[in-house]
Design goal:
Elements lengths: L1 E4 L8 H14 L4 E5 L5 H11 L7 E4 L5 H9 L4 E5 L6 H9 L2 E6 L3 H6 L1 H10 L7 E6 L7 H9 L15 H9 L3 H4 L4 H15 L3
Parallel strand pairs: 1-4, 1-5, 2-3, 2-4, 5-6
Organism: Xanthobacter flavus
Pfam families: CbiA
Protein name: Chromosome partitioning protein
Length: about 210
Amino acid sequence: MIVALLNQKGGVGKTTLATHLAGELAAAGARAAVVDADPQGSALDWSQRRAESGLPRLFGVLGLPRETLHAEVPDIARGADHVVIDGPPRVTALARSSILAADLVLIPVQPSPYDVWASAEIVALIGEARLFKPQLRAAFVVNRRIVGTIIGRDVRAALPEGLPALTADIGQRVVFAESVATGRLASELEPGGAAAQEITALAAEIMGGSS
């Protein structure tokens, strides 16, 4: 399966979700790969930090910020069970190419009105892509939810109509920031912790809907 994480608003945690999702799939025995389609190269930076720390390679990370992504990713997918695309910020031809490459598009949104409003253009792009790829699946995933806040509880109701929101959501947790800085995963920093459990639940929901 090819999963693309996209949102035109930067700073929503796409790279963290992409690396953690790939890591979770790899831990389950699958051959996983991350395609870094963000010109900023954040997933590549994470992979480099991991290598510099002498940690074992869990999955490959390939930089591919090109508008021909949709034509190139199928070749990459032949050598992997699952490919996770860390998409670019902003609505661009590269974002459109990422959508066309995917079987499933995940739109990470933080529980903030600004994030909710900003997701409308990605939803529109997905609608356009479905004219060419009717089987394309898409869903919101609530990321960096602060437990106990009103907006954290109500964000699903505020999302644009037309796409579902996954049941599994991801909390705002310090361990995710530490994972970015160290090239590790939450499951390595806090095995069995809340963050690791959230990622496991997210991966299970995604894979459960892939049949």
